[in-house]
Design brief:
Helix content: over 70%
Strand content: under 5%
Order of helices and strands: HHHHH
Largest sheet: none
Number of helices: 5
Number of strands: 0
Low-confidence stretches: 173-178
Distance between the termini: 171 Å
């Protein structure tokens, strides 16, 4: 049992230490072996500490890589969001521009229609204010001094006007005839 313990705990250390003693053949082999064992223990502790530090560094490196990947994903998402936002803003600007163009065209059409109506009204007003003589003075128009219109009874306006004038001059004659 004790030999098992010694083999397990001191086997490698003692065998290497004794090999060193045999190789170097110091004056005081016990002291040399004691120092060698202390040095061996410090080397083992240092190696364990370095392994532990390497493991911690590896873990930190993995965490840093994961964090870096997350940051890259977040940047990609942010870039995608910014692109979508820019596209939406561009689309909104285009819609607003189209609406403004349509509104401008509508306003221009309304102004054109209004101007056209004003011109027609002015032309009609000018046409109404022209006399028959001005209208017939145009090249190719017939030379008419007077146009007689016949009403339903078959009498012309001129004849009706003459009878009306004569009645106005002689109002008493009409009473007698009645």
């Amino acid at each position: 049992m004790e030999s098992e313990y010694l083999k397990r705990c001191l086997g490698i250390c003692l065998s290497k230490g004794l090999a060193e003693v045999v190789e170097h053949r110091p004056i005081d082999p016990i002291e040399y072996l004691a120092y060698w064992i202390y040095k061996y223990r410090r080397n083992l502790d240092g190696e364990q500490q370095r392994k532990q530090e390497r493991a911690e560094l590896e873990q930190e490196r993995e965490e840093a890589l994961k964090e870096l990947e997350m940051l890259e994903k977040m940047k990609e998402e942010e870039l995608m969001i910014q692109q979508k936002l820019a596209e939406e803003q561009q689309a909104q600007l285009e819609r607003e521009h189209e609406e403004a163009q349509l509104e401008l065209e509508r306003v221009e059409k309304e102004k054109a229609e209004e101007l056209s109506l004003q011109q027609k009204a002015e032309e009609e007003l000018e046409d109404k204010s022209r006399t028959l003589a001005e209208l017939t003075d145009k090249y190719g128009a017939p030379n008419l001094t007077r146009v007689e219109e016949i009403d339903e009874s078959g009498q012309s306006d001129a004849a009706l006007n003459l009878t009306a004038e004569s009645e106005e001059e002689n109002p008493t004659d009409m009473k007698v005839d009645s």
